[in-house]
Amino acid sequence: MRALVLCLLAAVCVGEAGLAQAATTPRRAGAYWTGLSREQKTDLVLGIFDGFNLNENILGITLKNEYTICSDIMESIMRQSDAYFADMTAGRIVTALDGFYAERKNKNIPISWGVWVVVRKNRHDPTLPEFLEELRNLYP
Fold first, then answer.
1. DSSP per residue over 48-102, as a string?
2. With a threshold of 0.90, does the pTM exceed it?
3. Residue 19: CB partners within 8 Å, gap ≥ 6?
4. Quick one: CA dihedral 99, 78, 110, 16, positive or negative?
5. How many C-alpha atoms does 3 have within 13 Å on its Cβ side?
6. For 78-137, what is each residue's pLDDT tens digit?
7. How many Å apart are CA 114 and CA 107, to the nearest integer?
8. CB-based contacts of 49: which residues, under 8 Å, 6+ apart?
9. Among 87, 95, 79, 81, which residue's Cα sits nearest to residue 122?
10. Coil, helix or strand for 26?
């Protein structure tokens, strides 16, 4: 049980550190997005997909080698993430992000978070409105 708690705590800390860093670094958000061509937007989304895959691979290897109790949790997270992205092609995400950044309140939200918003919207995630409000407050 203690190992499980440590695993979850580590995952939360990594997420919190990412949010803190994201709030203080220059970001690629709405203004950047709207200045790209459709092809550049697609390339950016594909790059985000590559980053997700690399992150899953590194975490998967690390957890399996060092924290075996976390392996089941990581596999569950990967399955859930895959479910959110199941029918979302790069082209659909680009189109959805165009709509997302058309709303002025979203202009400062980083593209990586925008991707997560649009895939959650596609899945009719009931927690999305609260999450989106948090992002709007974090990136006014």
1. HHHHHHHHHHHHHHHHHHH-HHHHHHHHHHHHHHHHHHTT--HHHHHHHHHHHHH
2. no
3. 138
4. positive
5. 9
6. 777 778 888 899 999 999 999 999 999 999 999 999 999 999 999 999 999 999 999 999
7. 10
8. 90
9. 87
10. coil
